[in-house]
Amino acid sequence: MSLYKLAIRPILLQFDPETIHKFTFKCFKLFQKSALMRSIVSAQFNVKHPKLERELFGLKFPNPVGLAAGLDKNAEAFDFLGSMGFGFIEIGTVTPKAQAGNPLPRLFRFVNDKALVNRMGFNNEGVEEVVSRLRKKKTQVIIGGNIGKNKLTPNEEATSDYIKCFKALYPLVDYFVVNVSSPNTPNLRELQDKDPLTKLLTDLMDLNRSMVKAKPILLKIAPDLNQSQLDDIIDIVKETKIDGIVSTNTTISRDGLSYPEDQIQKVGAGGLSGQPLRERATEVIRYIHKKSNGSIPIIGVGGIMSKEDALEKLKAGASLIQLYTGFIYEGPALVKAINKELLRKL
């Protein structure tokens, strides 16, 4: 058992999830300032080998294991997180203006099921603050920019918010992810409908092609879409010629939780992530991969809690994978374990 699971995690679990998240990031920001600390952590967790490298979207990833959006919302610790063995870091979700997000409490653990429920609501410090931090990047870690709209922006004007974020982040990120699938911003998921989504992605791609060099644009989708909606997504990706899909976001379902119903209901609304999401997220990846004849690159995310879960996502059709809840429950040793297992299998 890793030091994290043996000694650190039990302490972290004694505190409110969002409070301990803020404390942890204060530590990460402090560690990030030290090249020596980054080097020590990298020596412990990085697995480097040419066989782990992946070329996708015109980018060369040192390994296929990334950190999903949501953990480093404000681009505060991406250099340090990169030293933990991740092949890429996705920051955000970022909106044009800073916003506080939903009222507290808004982050909850279901420890026995290795799950989280969050209704954060795109809380972030705004794109300009994120830009100022990305300008201070010290390492070569690949950065994805996950972009969204402000809560008060009506859906009819959402494209403007995504364009503002795209323009501001364009010089500083390696790829973009369009987030229209969070369950925690009112009516956001309506943007996944065929007509508004086609228009949004078409406008972004038109802007992208007008830049000096086009950056990869991916779409992050919900696991709660039905087969017909997934078929629409596949058609939209082909029509707009975006570069791929991030599958999947958190789910509004509570299937797979072992807790009493009253305890689950007490937590209230929000997106469920972690182990209970694993099977559905894999199903969506497998469906998109087969239906598109493997023509759509997929970043697989959702319930990866072990090296076996990671291999499952890759076998289902994902080209890259991302961790979030698995990283919280298992620590950086999970990144190392997945990469070592991939090397063993290759």
UniProtKB/TrEMBL annotation:
Domain Dihydroorotate dehydrogenase catalytic, first and last residues per copy: 52-346
Lineage, opening ranks: Bacteria, Pseudomonadati, Bacteroidota, Bacteroidia, Marinilabiliales
Origin species: Ancylomarina euxinus
UniProt-listed Enzyme Commission number(s): 1.3.5.2
Cofactor(s) annotated in UniProt: FMN
Pathway participation: Pyrimidine metabolism; UMP biosynthesis via de novo pathway; orotate from (S)-dihydroorotate (quinone route): step 1/1
Function summary: Catalyzes the conversion of dihydroorotate to orotate with quinone as electron acceptor.
Family affiliation: Belongs to the dihydroorotate dehydrogenase family. Type 2 subfamily.
Signal peptide: none
Sites where the protein binds FMN: 69-73, 93, 146, 179, 220, 248, 274, 303, 324-325
GO cellular component terms given for this protein: cytoplasm; plasma membrane
Protein name according to UniProt: Dihydroorotate dehydrogenase (quinone)
Gene name for this UniProt entry: pyrD
Subunit-structure text: Monomer.
Active site positions: 182 (nucleophile)
Pfam families with a match to the protein in the record: DHO_dh (PF01180)
